[in-house]
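Following the same procedure, the fold was encoded as tokens, giving this record:
***
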Amino acid sequence: MDDQALNIAGARLGGFTQGAGLEERGAGRVLLLDGPGARPFRTLVERWARAVDRPFEDVERDLGSERFGTGGPQVLVIDQLEELITDCSDPEERELFVRAVSGAGAATWPRIVLGLRADFYGRCMRDARLARMLPADAGSSTPCPSGGSSGPKERAVPAP
């Protein structure tokens, strides 16, 4: 597994990261992309530009060249990665997104956390770039059930 990536297959990350206090914080520690949607590259550029307070066009150029630049969040959480397959019908948009998040070795890149449904794991593994980011032997994990303020989620992650 690439040291730039931490992967969780089968888990719903959005609620978990928000409940754990890891929601979007501008140029802070974590940026949550809660589903890439039908326009994954555009969505990534918009969210990253907002987080780093830079013009859309500048960020689009950088990410299109596989560079995140400096001064951004340390962690980029991409939840519902399966939307790359289910919602995006534009191969060029999909390619730009995959290239941007899987570029090799940039020291200024954020750590990438991928969340996807377990039934789409094999399809993501067919792309060599995504396969480098996903462990070949990943098991499926399930989201923590809600349990109030002292439930399993709160005990697992007591603070950001």
